[in-house]
């Protein structure tokens, strides 16, 4: 599968052959949904907690006599019905994350990439290296792509310093190392810009 290579001024500078087994696979909506659930669950902090009867301050001694007071019998002043008592069935620290096997993760990423390719929302850029670090210069060039939001995926060698400085102040624009490529970002951002030299790295990772 051939794909044209552009520069940051949206001009064609060449083409590249892409692996159809990675960039043109069948769409799996259920697997994409499962991967996003996996990401969201993994990012949940799970630090909510309340004190149980064994943790609240108080005595285990009976607060008053069993009989003769007219009150319901009580064994201590720690139950939830007492002021300062424990919380009944309250939240506790927990880990919300669950596992996906490697094949599922790879297939979900391939499927998400393929969806974006079919929608013609993936652009292969020859390089992210720019001469000026001024935001207005980069912003002017990116307007030619007519994007709502954009994700720039750069190679393992790192992101060009000028590009990093210039893009940091542009709304709805984010950068990501190819190592961190994930389904949620691919689906969330309107258009995906991939640096040409990171293509081989992505192919190697998903093969």
Topology summary:
Layout: E1 2-6, E2 12-17, H1 20-23, H2 29-43, H3 102-118, E3 122-125, H4 135-142, E4 150-154, H5 161-167, E5 173-177, H6 183-188, E6 191-195, H7 199-206
Description:
This protein is α/β, with parallel strands linked by helices. It folds into two domains: 2-44 and 96-206, Ribosomal Protein L4, Chain: A; 46-95, no CATH class. The chain is built from seven helices and six strands; from the N terminus they run ββαααβαβαβαβα. The protein has helices spanning 20-23, 29-43, 102-118, 135-142, 161-167, 183-188, 199-206; strands at residues 2-6, 12-17, 122-125, 150-154, 173-177, 191-195. It has a six-stranded mixed beta sheet. A hairpin with a 5-residue loop joins strand 1 (2-6) and strand 2. It starts with a strand and ends with a helix. The mean pLDDT is 93.
Largest sheet: 6 strands, mixed
Output the number of helix runs.
7
Order of helices and strands: EEHHHEHEHEHEH
CATH architecture of the largest domain: 3-Layer(aba) Sandwich
Keyphrases for this structure?
207 residues, alpha/beta, Ribosomal Protein L4, Chain: A, 2 domains, six-stranded mixed sheet, 14% strand
Q: Briefly, what is this?
A:
With 207 residues, the chain is of the alpha/beta class.
């Amino acid at each position: 599968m051939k794909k044209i290579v552009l520069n940051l001024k949206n001009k064609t500078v060449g083409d590249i052959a892409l692996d159809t087994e990675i960039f043109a696979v069948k769409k799996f909506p259920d697997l994409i949904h499962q991967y996003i659930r996996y990401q969201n669950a993994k990012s949940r902090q799970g630090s909510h907690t309340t004190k149980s009867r064994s943790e609240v301050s108080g005595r285990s001694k009976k607060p008053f006599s069993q009989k003769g007071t007219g009150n319901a019998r009580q064994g201590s002043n720690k139950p939830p019905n007492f002021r300062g008592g424990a919380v009944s069935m309250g939240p506790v620290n927990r880990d919300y994350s669950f596992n996906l096997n490697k094949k599922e993760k790879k297939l979900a990423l391939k499927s998400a990439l393929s969806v974006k390719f079919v929608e013609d929302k993936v652009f292969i850029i020859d390089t992210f290296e720019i001469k000026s670090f001024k935001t207005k210069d980069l912003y002017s060039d990116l307007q030619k792509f007519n994007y709502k939001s954009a994700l720039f995926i750069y190679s393992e060698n790192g992101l060009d310093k000028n590009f990093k400085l210039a893009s940091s102040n542009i709304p709805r624009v984010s950068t990501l190392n190819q190592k961190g490529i994930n389904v949620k970002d691919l689906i969330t951002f309107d258009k995906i810009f991939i640096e040409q030299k990171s293509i081989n790295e992505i192919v190697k990772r998903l093969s």
